[in-house]
Amino acid sequence: MLKNLVKDLKPSSTLLINETSRKLEEKGKKIYKFGFGQSPFKVPEDVVEELKGNAHQNKYLPMQGLSELRNAVAKYTSKKKNYDYKSDNVIIGPGSKELMFLLHVIFDGEIILPAPSWVSYAPQAILGRNKIQILKTKRENNWFPTASEIEEIVLKDKNKNYLLFLNSPNNPSGQICDNLEEIANIAKKHNLIILSDEIYSELSFKDNYQSISSFCPEKTIISTGLSKWCGAGGWRLGYFLVPDSLIEIKNMINVLASETFSAVSAPIQYAAIKAYENNHSDYINKSRNILSAVGNYVYENLKSNKILINKPQGGFYLMPEFLNKKFNSSSEMCDSILNDTGVALLPGSDFGFDQKQMLARLSFTDFDGQKFMNEIKDDETIDFDKISKLAPKVVEGVNKLKKWSESI
Fold this sequence. Notes:
By secondary structure, the chain is of the alpha/beta class. It folds into two domains: 4-43 and 281-407, Aspartate Aminotransferase, domain 1, CATH 3.90.1150; 45-277, Aspartate Aminotransferase, domain 2 (3-Layer(aba) Sandwich), CATH 3.40.640.10. It has 15 helices and 14 strands. A seven-stranded mixed β-sheet has the order 2-8-7-6-5-3-4, sandwiched between helices. A three-stranded antiparallel β-sheet has the order 10-14-13. A two-stranded parallel ribbon has the order 1-12. Helix 3 (45-53) runs antiparallel to helix 10 (266-277), helix 7 (147-155) packs parallel to helix 8 (180-190) and helix 11 (281-302) packs parallel to helix 15.
């Protein structure tokens, strides 16, 4: 009755951990939600007011997206990237996840996925009937591939089409790719297409965030949206920026959009215009300041001779590696941590790692972001006392995790 292609798939682990945590809480267990990655901040008030003011919008909008919103996105991105994007380069979707799925469906070739990679890339590639080339990465290179490692895959069969996924700042590692130019040179040399997932780009902890589109814009599809920087994950609004050189891809995504989601919710599209037209730099800077401080707190308090971990560089994730031989898989380890401590983590195997590598993804967002924002000043240095007061579950969860690591 069911296609084998679908029968072998499981629910997205990032969504499943949220459901598991909720059920355990309903049973009275105190859970530290380090598994589900979601912005702790509220949507900016001006954007919320715009949504309220457009609740009456009930018409189907153009399948590529509202022209005023596409104009706002193109103008905003052109200024950020120093590249001339037009409204016609923008496709609005119900979250960037849906647009990525449509890209997998239309692409005919092989998908190069650096491990670690977001949990939905591989299942979507499988549903799109594309072969996946998993590219193992190293901690020393911020968990990103080198250009020579990418080229090695391509040289095995230069006649194939290749689509490289690059996610920086990265989910699950919280790291930023710093060898973009050399990867771009390989992309140009071998005619690779790059999907640059930049959903966390506004939450880079340094000001000089760079996109691979700066080095090869003609080969790069930029994927991003409202969910992370704007705290609007549940609004489901994302978009692609597709260069003129890849117009055939853009046109085919539009065709599939017309046969699937038709158009994104009209009130949300109208509200999103303000997200890109109005100045939200104070909101974003406060978000980054808080996330950087909390992330560094977790890093400083977990790193030890029992836990290897890279300092966070953007977004809201860390990827600790537990140095123990007690467990057969990272899934078994995370189950043990949840049962023993109440700390919910996701196993590294969900992100493309070998199950015997004791890696896990930790999201440090289990706190009231609005309360945190209200109680700090712009550019305030956030010390331990502030974190202890405003992110108590993060502090408590980290302490439990550290004690657990020392006991095994």
